[in-house]
Design brief:
Blueprint (H helix, E strand, L loop, with lengths): L1 E4 L2 E4 L1 E7 L3 H12 L5 E5 L14 E2 L6 H15 L1 H4 L11 E5 L4 H13 L5 E3 L1 H7 L10 E5 L3 E2 L2 H14 L3 E4 L3 E6 L5 E6 L3 E9 L5 H5 L9 E11 L11 E4 L4 E6 L2 E6 L4 E2 L12 H14 L7 E12 L6 E3 L7 E5 L5 H18 L33
Helix pairs in contact: 1-6, 1-9, 2-9
Bound molecules: flavin-adenine dinucleotide.
The site of flavin-adenine dinucleotide has 38 residues, from helix 1, strand 4, strand 14, strand 19 and helix 9.
Length: about 400
């Protein structure tokens, strides 16, 4: 039987339904089709990349506080850097490097964490203040006790990347349906998730992959499942200043004491706060405004971080949402007793650079019964209830894992 969507017919049975056309859903769709998965449909209620991927600063770094997520980020970075070769599309990756610095208060945690990263094979150097200033001459030396530099990191373009995955998935036979909203998951008598009900039709599937970002729980709640993450509001501003190069010359910077980050962007830089963000209960209600005190905080952080950039002005700003898990690491997998359901959520403001690896992991779980590129089990949703969450190198300093 066929259901009509704006004149295009869609079947009522697939092997895999993927909900969400952000970078995660599109990466999963592409990777699953590449590994031989067939009968795949991706349902997106808006347009591809219309969710939080479209708001992303798309910074690509490997600085995490556990070996597995550090590895997940390096795999993601390598795929993004070689996107034309691997996926056949542009990702807009700019290899400008990533510089993170700590003050004396966090020095012990910082040095321990860099050692851990180097032991896992990460390309990162611990450097002193003088070396940091050689890489970025405008940094404020008073803030820097020690720094670390990742020469292979940088940033990419979230729209190009997501469209690249979507187009490649389509070429491999995945059906992409935009403007189709999933109302609820459906279950067989045995508590198995057996499909979805959209605003137009019922679709049966062997499995449903929920890659709906901050909307995940609105969907999984329809079968009584709640994934443990908070939704928070995050603002990003664009600073313009004549002294800032248009792109590429400065690295991405993470200011640990200031709990903020910045990256080059046309005519200036993007600047964001890396705290957990302000909690919001409804993902549709997002605060885009930049109140006077909010702008003041960005300006203060900017002036603390840099010297000789006085007079910088905010030329634009926007807001997006984070899905923050209790340990700030991704949540990947199903829930015992709900066969047929897989979700990816809790990306905690860092999901862009992790999405290439997560897409592979989920696809391998489906095709081979296990993720080969990286173990998926440590990211299972039940780890919190089981007392097996990841630990963070910098507790209390924001969403960064
Ligand atoms: C301001 C900001 C800055 C960020 N900066 C960085 C960064 O520098 N580096 C980094 O690695 N990460 C960053 N992130 C995080 C990263 O962008 C996200 O983790 C990632 O893009 C999430 O992708 P996603 O596919 O899970 O979610 P989304 O992109 O939100 O995609 C989910 C999709 O599901 C769709 N959907 C929802 N409900 C339904 C339904 N019922 N039916 C059908 N479709 C539905 C939505 O329309 C949406 O398109 C940032 C995020 C924000 C907000």
């Amino acid at each position: 039987m066929l259901a009509s969507f704006a004149g295009i017919f869609m079947r009522d049975r697939y092997q895999t339904v993927i909900i969400g056309g952000g970078v995660v859903g599109c990466s999963i769709a592409y990777n699953l089709a590449r590994l031989g998965g067939r009968d795949i449909v991706l349902l997106e209620k808006g347009a591809i990349c219309s969710g939080d991927t479209g708001k992303s600063c798309a910074i690509v770094r490997t600085h995490y506080s556990n070996p597995l997520t550090c590895r997940m980020a390096s795999i993601g970075r390598d795929i993004l850097a070689d996107f034309p070769g691997q996926v056949g599309a542009a990702s807009g990756f700019v290899r400008c490097g990533y510089l993170i610095f700590a003050d004396a208060a966090r020095l012990g945690d910082f040095e321990r964490n860099i050692r851990l990263q180097r032991e896992t094979g990460a390309e990162v150097e611990l450097i002193d203040c003088r070396q940091a200033l050689e890489i970025h001459p405008r940094l404020n030396p008073e803030r820097i006790a020690k720094a670390a530099f990742e020469p292979l990191s940088g940033y990419a373009d979230p729209h190009q990347t997501t469209m690249g995955y979507a187009d490649a998935a389509r070429r491999l036979g995945v059906e992409l349906r935009q403007g189709v909203s999933v109302r609820r998951l459906t279950e067989s008598l045995s508590d198995r998730v057996d499909g979805v009900e959209t605003d137009e039709a019922r679709i049966f599937a062997d499995r449903v992959v929920v890659a709906a970002g901050v909307w995940t729980n609105a969907i999984t709640a329809t079968v009584g499942v709640h994934y443990p993450f908070d939704i928070t509001n995050h603002k990003v501003v664009h600073f313009q200043h004549g002294a800032v190069p248009s792109s590429g010359r400065f690295p991405v910077v993470r200011d640990l004491p200031g709990i903020c980050y910045n990256r080059p962007q046309s005519g200036g830089m993007l600047f964001g706060n890396s705290d957990r963000g302000d909690p919001i209960s409804d993902p549709e209600v997002i605060d885009e405004s930049l109140p006077r005190d909010g702008a003041g905080r960005f300006l203060r952080n900017f002036e603390n971080c840099f010297v000789e950039l006085a007079g910088a002005r905010i030329t634009s700003h926007w807001a997006g949402r984070y899905d923050v898990s209790p340990d700030s690491n991704p949540i990947i997998g199903g829930i015992p007793g709900k066969e047929g359901l897989i979700a990816v959520c809790g990306l905690s403001g860092g999901g862009f650079k992790l999405a290439p690896c997560i897409g592979r992991m989920v696809a391998e779980e489906i095709v081979f019964g296990e993720s080969r590129i990286l173990p998926a089990e440590p990211y299972r949703p039940m780890r919190f209830a089981e007392g097996d969450a990841f630990t963070k190198a910098y507790p209390g300093t924001g969403a960064m894992a």
